[in-house]
Amino acid sequence: MADIIHLKLKWGQCIIFVFLCLIQAIQNPSDEGLQDEAWAAVVPLVGRLKKFYEFSQRLEAALHRLLRALTSESYNDPMQHLEREQALAKQFAEILHFTLRFDELKMTNPAIQNDFSYYRRTLNRMRINNVPAEGENEVNNELANRISLFYADATPMLKTLSDGTTKFVSENKNLPIENTTDVLSTMASVCKVMLENPDYRCRFSSEETVSFCLRVMVGVIILYDYVHPVGAFSKSSKIDMKGCIKVLKDQPPNTVDGLLNALRYTTKHLNDESTNKTIKAMLQP
């Protein structure tokens, strides 16, 4: 995880540099020097994109193991269950936090797909001309197709988690679905209470802790919306959606736009006819 976080911190700076190099190369297609410079810039970026994609695959496997551990036994009180499994719940929260943070960064760097397309076009041209290329073995065609599909999604890591959670539920039909949804709804409730109650909020050591709780809250809401038969926005939902949205909107301006957009555009049931009109209005841009 530490290596991935380190890569994340370098990502924005790297993309800006690559973007500038590609602009020059595309505007001057006959300048071999600029073409070489653009290629030298894009290869390391592709290596990073590959690492993030591979990490998403490991993330899904880790998610399945965590969900199995958190939901494999029946329990009467979800809160007590999570208290007993604090270490596992913390790991789950860390995954959700990373996922939402990654997707926030990805959405603010839309040039990623163009950079990857440039890499593939240039690599294909080099192969046709029998020109050896650094990084040619880094990403073969099959892997390149999978990476392209991954980054084509607006929130690729979140899609990995939502698909993974849905898959976990469908593959474990012997487990009551409430085992999973109760864990998710309880985590959402805990985050909401910690954020809206001044007695708890004042104990946070930094604004990063606030951001952590906000991302975890939104992450479990989205997963709940995918695996619960009628979703997080229905009257039968165990998540206080009005309260959660209010908590988000009470944050300083422009600090939670990405999280509100995640609820608007990556949930499954928000636009259902049965969704409360007040909730829909609260999430209007």
TrEMBL record:
The alphabetized UniProt keywords are:
Lipoprotein, Membrane, Signal
The answer to keyword Endoplasmic reticulum applying to this record is no
What GO CC terms are in its UniProt record? membrane
Instruction: State the Gene Ontology terms under molecular function.
Output: small GTPase binding
PANTHER family named among the record's database cross-references: GH09096P
For this chain, the family text in UniProt reads:
Belongs to the CYRI family.
Protein name per its UniProtKB record: CYRIA/CYRIB Rac1 binding domain-containing protein
Q: Which organism is it from?
A: Denticeps clupeoides
